[in-house]
Write a structure and sequence with these properties.
The structure is a homodimer of 605-residue chains.
Chain A lengths: L7 H11 L2 H4 L10 H19 L3 H6 L3 E3 L2 E3 L4 H10 L18 H14 L1 H20 L2 H12 L3 E6 L15 E4 L5 E11 L8 E8 L12 E6 L1 E3 L5 E4 L2 E6 L10 E6 L6 E5 L5 H37 L22 H33 L3 H41 L6 H8 L9 H12 L2 H21 L6 H26 L3 H5 L2 H30 L7 H21 L4 H8 L14
Parallel strand pairs in A: 3-6
Antiparallel strand pairs in A: 1-2, 4-5, 5-11, 5-12, 6-7, 7-12, 8-9, 10-11
Chain lengths: 605, 605
């Protein structure tokens, strides 16, 4: 049977031939691990994802959560799936053994979680949201808060949410209006309305811990006046038992185009003036706490987009191999048999494009996950800081590139299935609908582009950018040892040189105070920067494929490996010669500071 | 109130400033018409579309047709809408006065119909399918068939379908298996299964006339053995009254991602051996009949894609003007008011891109409709033939370009609405789902690309292509009289020159027998050819905008017109300087006969 969630061979290539997961086991934190323990975790993830997550993916879509008596009701298949996930320890995959974790590298945790994301984006979200909320409390909460709220989350009894967005404040968090008034007992009374809160209600856990952004009475205006609060659905008594309902009400559910199985909620805090919240960390520091956890969340969103793309790619590949239709252009004898559509050049193009997008983004997501491990476990503080800077720089790409291009992959998967792909009898249309969320949540595409050009490339004197340039140059240097890769390397070198120059010029504009003009075409910049990064990752994969081919002898038992590496080289060729050079037009617009869009006036539309 | 279906000002610009609809009234067939009668028809269309089509567009989606006791049941709002459409005469807008038509030019008929397509793609489809079927009988049916089947269609009592696709034969019609056996009475007995038959059952008309492709017993293999049959749902007696049910059964309904209000049916013909069909025209000529009607159908599909794009563009434009969010990059004072999101450069980019795609494709669709009028009403047979050749050449673009780029426009409309755009509380997500059908039906994108490069550009010694090149050169020549347009004209001239050379080279390959290689990158060719055509149409619009501006005096009462023309110039600038030059990379791949996708092997995926 063909694989449906991801290619195990490709995952092994990433872990052991590209990203050297084995080297992580040399680090003290991961010393008890080995390829065997890594592979065992992956096998468990695949098994649970296939058996308990994938089977209800369509049902999640067809029977979206319902609002009944003030609560969200889900289909019954979700809880056993999530329970098996918890039982197998994936919620705490990266936590230490002592607290019941698996002490796995983030790289492996993401690799395991990718299976759940591919099998069922909606059901896996409940786990991801809980991980995000738990990590916030772990990083910034008090010991008492950890005891009361984090420990039950680790045990899987409490789930979590991130409650940021308000009706009038989506991208502009600076404008949130939710208030937090200090109470006599040291807690706070929260009052306000939040929307689009994923997982804001569900029957999967005993309690739900909302991580809520709100403003204290003495808050300075803007983002520097935002504080972070723990607001539980049920009060938690000192002995850990559950108390009465807190004054948090489910006001309603949003009905989405896709990703329907995850509740998207409107929550009212403090309608009765009795919503108790607990300040996390210092006053007014809430947004900075959120941002410190953003890398992980955005890697998660990016990987979610990748895995929807991956699922669609594998499905359409299998379909293209099975489905006979038509004949090749030069074989028009109508009495001959029809060929499988994978034989048609344009279907191959659509499959190769999907492969290049999906496997390129998959590599980047795992690369970022490994970088996250570096931020935690490299030997010196300086090395860890350096890794963090690079991760900060790459995060907008890790989040946005798959959101755009793996959605495009899903569009191609539908096209390969033709009329069938447009029906709900096949899964690809759901992947497409599900994936359309990803360019919107956790910072829209536009926000990512401003983050990249307006903040990340210039931070710490451009240190991260310089680091990235060195890495790409090093990759090109190694690629230059393979004559076969010269046609792939050169477009990347050209893009790097020109983008570097444009970056300096744009940063010069920003420093000269031309802020609106300098950032006006940030979307183009994001696109080109993303293609540079994915092009680099494909060149890296191509090097490893050449090395893999060189290791093989000519035996017939190597045929599958040889095919695998050839496919990698062809996908790298596609991306580096079909996609990367197309960026020069966008670079020309950036170089010219083209103001076509900026100069457009409201009245002219 | 802002307009929701299309911009009336833009439609008037197209009809009276770009496409010179007034000149059509000089032709004998349209001599009774005038701008007043044209505008009256448009006003009626807009009014019915707004009052009866738009209000149930969402309900069509939420309550898709149900299969009950062997029949399709629709929501009750569809029939009154369709009845009003019929009552107002739009089904026969182009037919002669004597048969109850309005004798309008096709240009005006399409302009009227565009309102219905924008308001409700699904409900308007029933009318479009009936027009297509009626036109087939009118063009190729016998007098008796016209009396029995066409006349009730003209009267709106019978509706029609096009029944081509079979489970194993979608794009490859050559492989259909439906059989037609001659019966003693001169009719035929049809047996076979068809799928994806839009409008294959519904309660909107007394009878449904299926136009069915099937093979006679002595049929040669392949497309040259396909015949066309009339197969009514109910028998029709000699006096025109309805008889018993014919042996055509609704086997089931397909459940689609979008466009849900139009039934997509599986039909079984002759399960009991008693399905009566009537041969249209000559045996084995069915596919050529279908193809002769294809231009109209494909203009209709293209315009449908445009209008979904248009509806989304107008909705997101209105939203962007109303929705406050954030501040400009250089105005970060958090105590200042939030600005409407239309002020953000990236939102402007997304709006301007939509405008360029939607209004460019709208112009092309109407241009093609006017060309269709030329094929019918130009003075000499030679002129009519020449118009037909150009229309044949443009048809793959008219169909495919909006299907790809107005879908992209819908994606941008969702993005502008952010999280709200992803919910079913707003219409834009439905437009996106509805529009995803268009690159699939009436010939997939891949089929269009093969039609263009493999047939259309070389037909009649390349006569149509030469005609198009002359038209574009003439447009550039006229544009060169405006200094202000030189930056817009030059990219088009460069694209034209290079694409012309590539075309010759590729046709050389095809003539040399390198068929698979020559057609391998036809998707790239389609993209570039489409951008050439839309670029030409934008330059034409820019010329008319400059002429319009020159006509205005400086008075304040001209402000709206001045804004309108400025917007046209800015959108033309966007398309010709942001989109057209980006095609050079695809041209380079075509020039190089790049075989990246063709060389990919099945085993390498």
């Amino acid at each position: 049977m063909s694989e449906t969630l991801l290619s195990s061979r490709n995952l092994a290539f990433e872990l052991y031939e590209v990203l050297d997961a084995g080297a992580l086991t040399q680090r003290e934190r991961f010393a008890d691990h080995s390829r065997e323990t890594f592979d065992a975790a992956i096998d468990t993830a695949r098994s649970i994802a296939e058996k308990l997550f994938a089977p209800h993916n369509r049902k999640n879509d067809e029977h979206e959560p319902e609002f009944v008596d003030g609560a969200a009701v889900l289909i019954p298949e979700v809880k056993p799936a999530v329970d098996a996930f918890l039982e197998a320890g994936f919620l705490n995959a990266t936590r230490e053994f002592e607290v019941g974790g698996m002490q796995l590298p983030n790289l492996l945790s993401q690799a395991c979680f990718a299976h759940f994301q591919s099998a069922n984006a909606a059901t896996s979200s409940y786990a991801m949201l809980t991980m995000g909320a738990a990590n916030l409390i772990e990083a910034f909460g008090s010991e008492a808060q950890k005891q009361r709220f984090l420990q039950p989350m680790i045990e899987g009894r409490f789930f979590g949410t991130m409650a940021l967005t308000e009706p009038h404040a989506g991208s502009s968090l600076s404008d949130i209006r939710t208030k937090a008034e200090p109470a006599a007992d040291g807690s706070y009374r929260i009052r306000g309305n939040k929307i689009f809160i994923s997982g804001g209600d569900h029957p999967l856990s005993e309690n739900i811990v909302h991580m809520v952004l709100a403003k204290l009475p003495d808050a300075p205006p803007g983002v520097k006046g935002i504080s972070l609060f723990i607001v539980p659905k049920y009060h938690v008594n000192d002995d850990g038992s559950l108390g009465a309902r807190n004054d948090v009400a489910l006001a309603g559910l949003f009905h989405k185009m896709g990703w329907r199985g995850t509740t998207s909620t409107a929550l009212n805090f403090g309608d009765n003036g009795e919503c108790v919240g607990y300040l996390v960390g210092k006053p007014h520091a809430g947004l900075s706490y959120m941002f410190q956890m953003m890398n992980e969340a955005r890697i998660g969103v990016g990987m979610g987009a990748v895995m929807l793309g991956y699922a669609g790619y594998l499905y359409s590949l299998d379909y293209a191999r099975q489905r006979p239709q038509g004949r090749l252009p030069d074989g028009k004898d109508p009495t001959s048999s029809q060929v499988a559509i994978i034989e048609h050049a344009d279907v191959r193009r659509m499959l190769l494009t999907q492969k290049a997008y999906v496997e390129g983004a998959f590599d980047l997501g795992l690369y970022a996950a490994r970088l996250f491990d570096d931020t935690q476990t490299l030997a010196t503080a300086e090395e860890r800081q350096s890794a963090l800077e690079l991760l900060d720089l790459l995060t907008p790409i890790v989040k946005s590139w798959p959101s755009e291009f793996c959605l495009k992959a899903n569009e191609l998967a539908i096209q390969i299935l033709g009329g069938h792909g447009y029906t709900r009898d096949y899964p690809v249309e759901q992947y497409y609908r599900d994936n359309r969320l990803n360019p919107i949540h956790e910072g829209t595409h536009g926000i990512q582009s401003l983050d990249l050009l307006g903040r990340k490339v210039s931070m710490n004197g451009g240190a991260a950018l310089k680091q990235l340039v060195r890495l790409i140059q090093d990759c090109c240097q190694r690629a230059s040892q393979f004559e076969s890769l010269s046609a792939l390397r050169q477009p990347l070198e050209q893009l790097l040189a020109r983008l570097s120059a444009v970056t300096l010029a744009l940063l010069g504009d920003l420093m000269a105070g031309k802020v609106n003009q300098g950032l006006a075409n940030s979307a183009l910049y994001l696109k080109v920067f993303g293609h540079l990064v994915i092009g680099w990752r494909w060149l890296e994969q191509a090097i490893r494929a050449e090395q893999g081919l060189a290791r093989l002898d000519g035996g017939a038992d190597n045929a599958a490996d040889r095919d695998f590496y050839q496919g990698k080289l062809q996908a790298a060729r596609y991306f580096l010669t079909w996609e990367v050079p197309a960026c020069h037009h966008e670079l020309a617009l950036l170089e010219a500071r083209d103001d076509c869009c900026l100069a457009m006036q409201d009245g002219w539309f």
